[in-house]
Amino acid sequence: MFKEDTTMMNSNPPLFQQYELLLQSTAHLQPLHNGYQPTSSVLEECQLPLVDLKGLESGKEKERMACSREIFEASAEWGFFQVINHGIRSELLSRMSKEQMKLFAVPFEKKSTSGILDNSYRWGAATATQPNQFSWSEAFHIPLTKVSEADCYGDFIHLREVMEELATAMSKLARSLAGVLVESLGHRKEVFEDMCDESTCFLRLNHYPICPFPGEVTGLVPHTDSDYLTILHQDSGGGLQLMKGSQWVAVKPIPEALVVNIGDLLQAWSNDTYKSVKHRVVTNSVRERYSTAYFLCPSNQSGIGSCRQPSPYRHFTFGEYRKQVRDDVEKTGYKVGLSRFRL
């Protein structure tokens, strides 16, 4: 059916084989689109709202308020924005990218069996039952509590150094932005300081290999994030798309900028003021893509309350939400999300 470049197989997971098996096993079925256009059906490239965070550090109240307002408006209208002057050194982000590339260049068998990075290696989509539920990607999904443990890294000593520094910097940025969003709705920023928990926050290192049929399969299937807030550093190749209204739009990368997006928990807490927007990563037939994401989460026991009553959601804990998401993905192949918890 298709031919794959076997020179890539030493390091890349067997994505081609798994995807081909899905195609063969579902050839007799009608395609399941879940309401989404094919990856090639994108009408425009957009530039997300761009926020210069130096305004938050200004000695002038007017400038601080203007910056906070930009963050609020972008979170309410788009659910996504990009930030510059965010306090994370470009040299650190460059080092992370280089170490990440070295990590993913390790032979597939070693990545999948050596237990490196707390045995957090994942690839493809084990629960996929339809081709459009498959992700052409691989990733390491590392809890913050494990980032500083030397035993997790094996020979990757330099990776540990840069991951520790990046995790600290991204955590500080995420909490700062969450504080702004909480204060914008009339609450103390310490509200999230009390709820966020390093034991459930994590870093995710992503690699999207070259794909021989990019219009047919996504690098990461459409989804919303199951956290409060996500900070993303991506390379210059692009590939990130988000749903704006009923149309997929491609996000134009900006050098030195980080992407920020609202997660499900912040949408629920804000009574839908802030938007957790569906997004995906498309594949590319000529170049691979790398990204690093930080996810700001509460403890599993934390109740996801509301900024005011009445709330459109019933009370639930983060642990309960995570379990429901896992159950839905295992049963249906895709995430249902907040609609499960609406009153």
Automatic annotation (TrEMBL):
This protein's record includes keyword rRNA-binding: no
Record-linked PANTHER family = 2-OXOGLUTARATE (2OG) AND FE(II)-DEPENDENT OXYGENASE SUPERFAMILY PROTEIN-RELATED
Descriptive protein name:
Gibberellin 2-beta-dioxygenase 8-like
Which organism's genome codes for this protein?
Answer: Cucurbita moschata
Q: Which residues form a coiled coil?
A: none
Which PROSITE patterns does the record cross-reference, listed alphabetically? FE2OG_OXY
Gene Ontology molecular function = metal ion binding; oxidoreductase activity
Which residues belong to any copy of the Fe2OG dioxygenase domain?
A: 197-298
Alphabetized Pfam families for the sequence: 2OG-FeII_Oxy, DIOX_N
**Top-level taxonomic group:** Eukaryota
Family annotation (InterPro entries): DIOX_N, IPNS-like_FE2OG_OXY, IPNS-like_sf, Iron_ascorbate_oxido_reductase, Oxoglu/Fe-dep_dioxygenase_dom
Q: Which family does it belong to?
A: Belongs to the iron/ascorbate-dependent oxidoreductase family.
Keyword vocabulary terms for this entry? Iron, Metal-binding, Oxidoreductase
Which gene is the coding source of this polypeptide chain? LOC111447734
**UniProt entry tagged with the keyword Oxidoreductase:** yes
